[in-house]
Amino acid sequence: MQIQRIDVMRQSTPLVKPFKTALRTVFQAESVLVRITADDGRVGWGEAPATIVITGDSLESIESAIVHTFTPLLVGKSLLAYEQIIQSVHQAMVGCSSGKAAVDMAVYDLVAQACGVPLYQFLGGYKDRIETDFTVSVNSPKEMGEDAARYVESGFNVLKIKVGKDDIGEDIERIREIRSRVGDRVKIRLDANQGWQVKDAIKSIRRMEDMGLNIELVEQPVKAGDIEGLKAVTDAVETLIMADESVFSPVQALEVLQRRAADLINIKLMKSGGIYKAQIINQIAEEYGVECMVGSMIESRLAVTAAAHFAASKKNITRFDFDAPLMMLHDIVDGGVRYDGRVMTFPDEAGLGIRNVRCQDGMGAVS
């Protein structure tokens, strides 16, 4: 089974409500879709969103990398030698982790199809269903409390709260309001998206601990490159600290783990460059006794399906952040992972189980 052709296209889907974090505000989910066709007619799908403020990748740079760098390398290559394919993609250029991830997931989709099994089974098959949290964007305490209560009423029992956009005292008020609205049984995770200074992070997390706000974890409280600062926060508080933007590669994961700079690691395919490297990060973390979460950017159900297959396949991945498709006004994917409230289940079809993707930017259906 050889790669016959690689097609790319763009899609843009409006969100139900603007998604606000310390780093950006998103109104549209925009991404590059990848379709790899094998010589036996099978099709593998991939997706890469443009998240410039985190990955540095734009729609233009992703598209250019796939069309001009990866495609000439891959057409004609045997998919059953997928190690060679993925290694060549990672060695072909520095950066563009999102473009690499899109190609990676399409390749894994095709390989699992050739083996006749769903991708999560091909990768390990540890779970056949997972549960996602739901994210509350940064807004006023009142609006965030109302959003949180609505998500809990919809059946979600884990909330990821975005903070770090402005005054840290305001963040505490946001959390206090949300906790008062949802009660004590709902898990609350905070994601500062690098928005706090080290001393302020320590002070505020300790204050929340003293207030009994019962925060499960705080994700990336300080700047991505400040590993010393991340460690200082981790050492100073009882609340679990999760590294996100600090860990793109296995090498960065190893540094965080060796220095005990975080209690948990958040793996995203768009940071790692796909499933291949994501597996290495998880394996290293598991050897250090550190659990991982798998999350996503603002991606459609295409990319989230790939990430969910990977996440479900591994024992050491214990937390899941896959709510992005639920934030979109339109669902562009036919097939793939299914949502029943917070519960996600997988199709019986081989590979990702994606049958078709429909673009919403005027380009029409892709088949």
TrEMBL record:
The record's free-text note on cofactor binding: Binds 1 Mg(2+) ion per subunit.
Mandelate racemase/muconate lactonizing enzyme C-terminal domain sequence ranges: 141-240
A Pfam family reported for this protein in Swiss-Prot or TrEMBL: MR_MLE_C
Organism of derivation: Paenibacillus oleatilyticus
The protein, known as: Dipeptide epimerase
Enzyme Commission (EC) number: 5.1.1.-
Cofactor(s) of this protein: Mg(2+)
CDD domains: L-Ala-DL-Glu_epimerase (cd03319)
Keywords: Isomerase, Magnesium, Metal-binding
Enzymatic class: isomerase
InterPro entries: Dipeptide_epimerase, Enolase_C-like, Mandelate_racemase_C, Mandelate_racemase_N_dom
Family membership noted in the UniProt record: Belongs to the mandelate racemase/muconate lactonizing enzyme family.
